[in-house]
Amino acid sequence: MSNPPDHDSVTAVLAGVSDPESGRPLTEMGQVRTVTATPAAIAVTVGLTTHAAILWNATRGRIEELLRSRFPAVPAVTVTIEPHERPPGKLGQIGLEAKSVIAVGSGKGGVGKSTIAASLAIGLARAGSRVGLLDADVYGPSVPHLLGLSGRPQVDNGKIMPMRLDIAAGSMPVMSMGFLVPAGEAVVWRGPMLHGAITQMLRDTLWGPLDYLVIDMPPGTGDIALTLSQVLPLTGAVVVCTPQDVALLDATKAIAMFRKVNIPVLGMVENMAFFVCPDTGKRWDIFGSGGARRTAQELDIPFLGEVPIQIPIREHGDAGKTAANYDDPAARPYLEAICTRLVGNLAAATAARPPLPSLPVL
Ligand SMILES: Nc1ncnc2c1ncn2[C@@H]1O[C@H](COP(=O)(O)OP(=O)(O)OP(=O)(O)O)[C@@H](O)[C@H]1O
Ligand SMILES: [Mg+2]
Predict the structure, then answer these.
(1) Which of 104, 106, 108, 114 to mutate to test the pocket of ligand 1 (most atoms within 8 A of CB)?
(2) Into how many domains does the chain fold?
């Protein structure tokens, strides 16, 4: 029989858990806000600095597991995570309020950037973060179609009200040139107009404070990447490619381009990585296999994960129901793994910076 829990023995367990962002034990930085312990129940409240809701859930699970195994006789263990609210700073001259801005690009067209960008945004939002999605593909905006959103945004006092996608955790603001230009109409943009259109969508949209802004880039991203790098500090870019040599070659060029305009590359996603035949269960490597993982390794960037080629993913996209990929057990684990690795890497990058100041104990 283990001793009944008390404040000190519960705190000792919490000392074994690190803040996912700072990497320091929770007890060192004043992040343990409350501890109550009786033989019948343990309740702790912990403040985390990260805005990644996925990491709150993971940390809560870890603490619960440790407390349950240390105090198996206690029937009720409750762990509450409170964000240590770091209000999002205003970014660049455009004053966008976001903690992380993530661009999703590739070199080659049609590899699934928009699908992955929308899925990343939806995955982060479903976990509870405040997320916005900007379709920066001004020539061929596909986000409205993939998400089943249409209509013209209201303009109020020179500010554009974004369209909103309903998801379980609330609704996500989405902005695209597709909402501003009639469908099917060809748009001819010159470089400066392109710059203006992107800047305007970033600056004049009423995004509200965001944890993440995800940006879906057009193929062959040179111009837009340059514009983005000029108007706001991007956290970094996720590069999507297929395992095919030609796509990998283009992805390598895209990575070089991002590096040239000082946009950090956060990692690579391999889309259409393989096909599992629903009739036989046999795996087919339609575009080859493992190429993106190898390329990521060669270029010394993180590999964030793979997504198989699947008829439901295409059907959901065509039907404007990209969010339904999270209801599909054959797609969901892949998409969630990519979200988790991405936010984990971002938190680890923050951890590599000097330690954060201690949090106030409430
Ligand atoms: N893993 C997948 N399985 C099946 N279909 C997919 C998958 N990923 C994307 N698709 C489909 O492939 C098509 C192209 O995807 P998407 O529009 O996301 O590519 P893109 O790289 O953004 O293209 P563009 O270069 O035109 O912007 C869409 O019809 C989409 O539904
Ligand atoms: Mg696209």
Answers:
(1) 114
(2) 2
